[in-house]
Amino acid sequence: MTTYDVVGVGIGPFNLSLAALADNVDDVSALFFDAKPAFSWHPGMLIEGTALQVPFLADLVTLVDPTSRWSFLSYLREHDRLFPFYFAERFHVPRREYDHYCRWVASSLPSCRFASPVQRVDRDGDMFAVRYVDQATGRHETVAARNVVLGIGTVPSTPAAFDDVLGKRVFHSADYLDRVASLHDARDVTVIGSGQSGAEVFLDLLHRQPDTGYRLRWLTRSAAFAPMEYSKLGLEHFTPDYTRYFRALPEPTRDALVPAQWQLYKAISAETIAEIHDTLYERGIGGARPDVTMTPGIAVTAARQAAGGVELGCRHTEQARDFTLSTDRVVAATGYASRLPDCLDPVAGLVDWDDRGRYRVGADYRVALDAGAGLYVQNAESHSHGVGAPDLGLGAHRAAVILNSITGDSTYRLPERCAFTDFGAFTDFGAVTTAAPHDTHPGGD
User: Are strands 309-316 and 188-192 parallel, antiparallel or unpaired?
Assistant: First the structure.
């Protein structure tokens, strides 16, 4: 049985970043598995014209090692696109191109094995035994791992109200491109959810509306179709500095803070909002009223099959008003949720779970574990590390922290300070003395 220093379960952008950075470390042996036949990144949402929400520098390696052969600029050079990219002057690249870049890296790295689902992870002394299936041969294989890194990503999530209607007439936005043709013969289409995915689906359906003729509706339980916080200081919440600050907060404070910061990660880019408004403005020339309804503050409380469509039970939260509406099709852009992989069941008893059944995760992304081997997680630690956990801009940094932890060395040099903001109380100003209150008098000295 071959032994590896690192075995990754799942090959999304985050474990792919780890694979790319590990490729440059001679004394680290690594192997990564994924059940899919090839790399793919949200294929149902690679809508033409959509752009990545982070700059191209947030690729798999650049913010840690800009000299890496696996950088986005290296990818462009490999495909003779450096001059077109230079002339395009685009800081935010097409999402389809980011997907193609990742596929290029994944297919080039010998450590990445697709069509190889991991079946189980067992404890084997001071290591893990990782069992997988090579689907090309049908053979069951096992490798030993000194460390396992989970990078399985998240899964589409829909409210419980939709449990009985998911199917032909109601589907998640993750399947949008595969299912959009089924909407063309509908008379009435409803999009639910006002994050970036919901906005992109609504905009694409809006562009198709002149040819299809359907009535288009957009509902969200949020108080507004709100823009993403994208100011330069606001973005400093996606730095290692903020992650360190967040980790030091009490757990109840962290749990309350993440949902309160929704505009950092669940809102809409200003560019998408502007394009929606511009499209509606063009449609309204001469006083015409576009056949569109957009309503915030709507919670969908129930859903049932109706003749030819779906009936939604809704509540306007601010008006405290309940009502029903009928629609032919529903696209639920209702986000994603973390999951615990079945392959981890044999060692689940070794994990120190918190009171809400989540991993207890250290500063180096290592799970608290009653075992000698190391178990690390990527994008399963928002509760302990904050809103930056799913952000691509922190992916390379997190992968480098994990590699440094595994090697016990500064394999990659990481900056001590990245933000201008001091998130804590006077963290760089030494001891702080609180002065006693004193009387003040208008006109006094």
Answer: unpaired
Nearest to residue 305, comparing CAs of 147, 169, 101, 123? Answer: 169
Collapsing DSSP states into helix, strand and coil, what is residue 250?
A: coil
Phi-psi region of 91 (alpha: psi -120 to 50; beta: other; left: phi over 0): alpha
How far, rounded to the nearest angstrom, does the alpha carbon of residue 96 sit from its chain's CA centroid?
A: 16
Contacts of 144 (CB under 8 A, 6+ apart): 1, 2, 3, 4, 124, 127, 128, 129, 130
Positive or negative, the Cα torsion across 302, 304, 306, 308? positive
Rounded to an integer, what distance in angstroms lies between the CA atom of residue 72 and that of residue 94?
12
- 118 burial class (0-12, 13-18, 19+ CB within 10 angstroms)? buried
Nearest 5°: the CA angle 336, 406, 116 is 50
**Among residues 153, 149, 189, which one has the least CA distance to residue 169?**
189
Q: How many residues does the chain have?
A: 445
Q: Rounded CA gap, 390 and 93, in Å?
A: 18
pLDDT tens-digit map of 186-221:
999 999 999 999 999 999 999 999 999 999 999 999
The answer on 141 and 85 residing in a single domain is yes
The answer to whether residue 57 sits within a structural domain is yes
> Domain check: are 319 and 176 in the same one?
yes
Q: Within this chain, do residues 36 and 63 fall inside the same structural domain, yes or no?
A: yes
CA angle 337, 343, 345 (to 5 degrees): 90
Output DSSP code: residue 420. S
Residues 49, 139 within the same domain? yes
**Residue 269 belongs to some domain of the structure:** yes
Give CA–CA dist 190/292, Å, rounded: 10
Burial of 23 (0-12, 13-18, 19+ CB in 10 A): buried
Q: How far is it, in rounded angstroms, from Cα 140 to Cα 118?
A: 10
What's the whole-model pTM score?
0.93
Query: Residues 260-312: pLDDT tens digits?
Result: 999 999 999 999 999 999 999 999 999 999 999 999 999 999 999 998 899 99
Alpha-carbon gap, residue 11 to 379, rounded angstroms? 12
Tell me the residue ranges of DSSP E strands in 265-353. 292-295, 298-306, 309-316, 321-327, 329-332, 336-338
Is the pLDDT reported for residue 442 higher than 90?
no
Number of domains making up the chain: 2
290 lies in which domain range? Answer: 168-228+265-332
Residue whose C-alpha is closest to residue 395's, from 407, 408, 378: 378
